[in-house]
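dumping this here before i forget
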Amino acid sequence: MRHLTRVIVASVALLVSPSAQANDWDNCWDLAGQPAVSACSRLIASGRYSGEMLGKIYSSRCFHHVELNNLPAAIDDCNRALALHPRNEKAYHNRAVAKRRSGNHQAALADVDQAIRLKPDYYMAFLLRGLLYEHMGNVEQARANFRVAAGAPPTAQNQRAITGGREGLARVGQ
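structure:
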């Protein structure tokens, strides 16, 4: 009976724990900036998640750190995400964005290549690869990647890639 009581008390303590709030799960993905980072951080600190799911939370927090231009924290979170879930194409893409912003274009290119290998229809990754090649002066590779992004199926999810691909093509020539 004492064991059951301890289990119940521990369960209630977890439910009312200030370390995680009821809406943190949604906020980790749906909010932006520091509120999202805080929500993701509380989920991580809660100890409720492990493996692939914990990796996805780290990947989301990485994305929000990129938004805030906190690049070392972004790269660290993506590294953690990939250690837990090595097939997370979003973590490779997010880390590539952080590395690009840090000026490490070769490392960013390696990460975005891996994101595309994992998800060949990841059109935002093609856009990023086009931007990297454009910056590095490889116009032909930039053009090829911008074409893939611009030719993405016209869905709401792909709109940024399509627009960015068209803009890239306008810069480097069709």
